[in-house]
Specification:
alpha/beta; Rossmann fold; six-stranded mixed beta sheet; 38% helix; globular
Length: 208
């Protein structure tokens, strides 16, 4: 089996402003570009055969910077199945202002819970419904061929995938988060479940 290497895009222009980005196509900041290149350095010891990213530019920019950081150029597949969660009516709003309006308990449920409703948007369960089938159909077969795969996605699309990989319950999924500046290297079994994982980090600070 090949290795599954997962990274979250780094700081976008809306991350810097504390806004919910969701499906809006927002580019990285200069800081995001710089840190993404450093993230590439975390996996210099890994041979990458193919890469995957969402259709949103911030993941592609992160991926290209990571490639630059490890001096590789591999085939890239982009898919909307890996896109960030649609935050519906909250898209573009400042997270910390919304927290003051909703209160911490409701705010945390909105961000972390499995099925907490988002007006005109997606729950994490809905994101899981597109991310996991894509993983099983498009990525797992490559891992079975011994290919090492680099996947760059978003906080919630990665959380959804981690739920499957690590067999995390609906209740416990609220406790997991893919941090900015982190890379997770998974080995998986024939069904695509985690056998082991290696977490690597750079020090970075993002307002998200």
């Amino acid at each position: 089996m090949g290795k599954l290497i997962i990274a979250r895009h780094h700081e976008s222009e809306w991350n810097k402003l504390g806004k919910w980005t969701g499906i809006v196509d927002v580019a990285l900041t200069p800081y995001g570009h710089k840190m993404s290149k450093k993230m590439g350095g975390l996996i210099k010891d890994q041979m990458i055969d193919q890469a995957f990213a969402s259709e949103q530019v911030r993941t592609l920019e992160t991926l290209v910077c990571m490639e630059d950081g490890i001096c590789i150029d591999v085939p890239i597949t982009r898919s909307a199945a890996l896109n960030e969660r649609d935050y519906g009516d909250y898209t573009g709003k400042n997270k910390w202002e919304v927290e003051k309006i909703l209160g911490k308990e409701a705010f945390d449920k909105l961000r972390r819970d499995w099925e907490y409703p988002v007006p005109n948007g997606e729950t994490l369960k809905m994101v899981y419904g597109r991310v996991v089938p894509f993983y099983l159909e498009k990525i797992l077969p490559l891992l079975k061929l011994g290919k090492n795969i680099l996947l760059v996605a978003h906080g919630n699309s990665i959380r959804a995938l981690m739920k499957y990989l690590e067999k995390i319950s609906d209740e416990d999924v609220r406790t997991i988060e893919m941090l900015f500046g982190s890379v997770v290297i998974y080995t998986v079994d024939e069904d695509g479940y985690m056998m082991s994982k290696d977490i690597r980090k750079i020090e970075s600070h993002v307002n998200a």
